[in-house]
Design goal:
Strand order of the largest sheet: 1-8-4-5
Shape: globular
Number of strands: 8
Structural class: mainly beta
Oligomer: single chain
CATH class: Mainly Beta
Strand content: 35-45%
CATH topology: Elongation Factor Tu (Ef-tu), domain 3
Number of helices: 0
CATH architecture: Beta Barrel
Largest sheet: 4 strands, antiparallel
Order of helices and strands: EEEEEEEE
Distance between the termini: 8 Å
Number of domains: 1
Helix content: under 10%
CATH superfamily: Translation factors
Length: about 90
């Protein structure tokens, strides 16, 4: 079953790594996300796109982990995009 993970508030690109989606995933219970897990992105205009977690960044903050998607430029993930597990 899919669940809403977060709504994109910011994106940025690390050259050679991919697009990072912020505020990131906060784990719930035993649920953990790994490289290769599928995500569904629901854009504010109603369109959807499938993405794969190609990397994970963990910054020194308690909010969670930040998924990195490759092949999806930040312009394809507008603010307000909902990120769902797939």
């Amino acid at each position: 079953m899919s669940r809403h993970l977060f709504t994109v508030e910011d994106t940025f690109t690390i050259r050679g790594r991919g697009t990072i989606l912020v505020p990131g995933i906060v784990p719930e219970g035993d649920g953990r996300f790994r490289i290769g897990d599928a995500l569904r992105l629901r854009r504010p205009n109603g369109s959807e796109v499938e993405a794969t977690i190609d990397g994970i960044e963990c910054f020194n903050v308690p909010q969670g982990t930040y998924p990195i998607v490759v092949g999806l430029p930040k312009s394809d993930v507008p603010l307000g995009t909902e990120v769902w597990s797939a």
